[in-house]
Write a structure and sequence with these properties.
The structure is a homodimer.
Chain A lengths: L2 E9 L4 H9 L3 H5 L2 E8 L6 E8 L2 H7 L3 H10 L3 E14 L5
Antiparallel strand pairs in A: 1-3, 1-4, 2-3
Chain lengths: ~100, ~100
């Protein structure tokens, strides 16, 4: 079942754009791991926050991706840019009004 | 600029699945209005909540869609299913690691 993971990542003040650049760096291994969509963005009302919206083939595919060496290395590399504040939610996708 | 709108809709207790069915009913006018993605789902950890993740061609397209007669009628029809609790966030998409 398609799984959605939507979240906010707090950035160290002044490091938001660097964190965005890190997150949008091309990572084809994510698609191989079952990532269907991974959109990264900002909202200037919250200038120290990065937003992500992800879709995965399953919750298990998402969990397993966090164990990939490339993903672990990427998380380690991002750590100095993160304030430690995280938010968001996850859900199982049941459908879309854009599909019949 | 692609715009993401991600949110939670509180359902009247016992009405969650009816609200999901309402939200995923095929609505081709959304695509015509600039909706690129509209995923609806649930998380059994929050049994009275429906989750949505939307992508639009722009924030303006999203705003304008709320004025469409079909969308206004749909919102009015959903109102008895809604508890009145809403959450979530919106952001401007800057990129994706799935794209070069």
């Amino acid at each position: 079942m398609t799984y959605a993971n939507v979240g906010t990542l707090g950035a160290v003040p002044g490091k938001r754009d660097e964190l965005v650049a890190h997150l949008i760096r091309s990572s084809p291994e994510l698609a191989d791991a079952g990532c269907l969509l991974y959109e990264v963005g900002v909202n200037d009302d919250q200038p120290d926050t990065v937003f992500v919206a992800e879709l995965w083939t399953s919750a298990e595919a998402h969990r397993a991706s966090l164990e990939l060496p490339e993903v672990k290395a990427s998380i380690a590399e991002a750590r100095p840019l993160l304030s430690g504040e995280f938010g968001g939610f996850a859900f199982d996708v049941l459908g879309s009004p854009l599909r019949d």
